[in-house]
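hiii so my PI (J.) wants the whole complex modelled not just the main chain, which honestly fair. so below is everything: two entries, each one labled with what it is. i double checked the lines twice but i was tired so who knows lol
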Amino acid sequence: GAVVSQHPSRVICKSGTSVKIECRSLDFQATTMFWYRQFPKQSLMLMATSNEGSKATYEQGVEKDKFLINHASLTLSTLTVTSAHPEDSSFYICSARQGAEFFGPGTRLTVL
Amino acid sequence: EDQVTQSPEALRLQEGESSSLNCSYTVSGLRGLFWYRQDPGKGPEFLFTLYSAGEEKEKERLKATLTKKESFLHITAPKPEDSATYLCAVLSNFNKFYFGSGTKLNVKP
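here's the output for the full assembly
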């Protein structure tokens, strides 16, 4: 199957700082990538759809100014959590589709 | 309303004890049903895609089946390394994925 990578796998930051998470499709080009958030013992919650060369599409209730998405190339999408707060602590997962949806390994964000 | 429901929420099996996980769905036009395995602290790992009722897919001890209303993931003679959360997702005609909440499988030696 297709390979999607994420970096970093873990990040700890202070409240008020911004954190950038990268998502790369390693063996295929993805005009669209997806960003999910997962709380403990819960399923994936789609946050936004990242579109190469255009603005991201956000799901209802997701703050655009807080979760900045940039899809700079056909293999890279970035999610920046701006002015992070402890309630932003979560597991963030990206994905790209090639037939099925293939997920990155996830990024554990802890905001102190 | 499009939705995916998985049952049971959690399942404990003895090694070698076969069982099935259920994924029930209602969706406006099914383009595909997907099974994933997720280990703690990791992203979901793709297992199977099923496209039409009657279709079956197998991989080692896992076998996925599909009807018009549900899918089953059958686990034959499971081993402790099969312990994980198994997620089901459906892709609708509107190109949207809907995920179930998962079944956490624990296989005891």
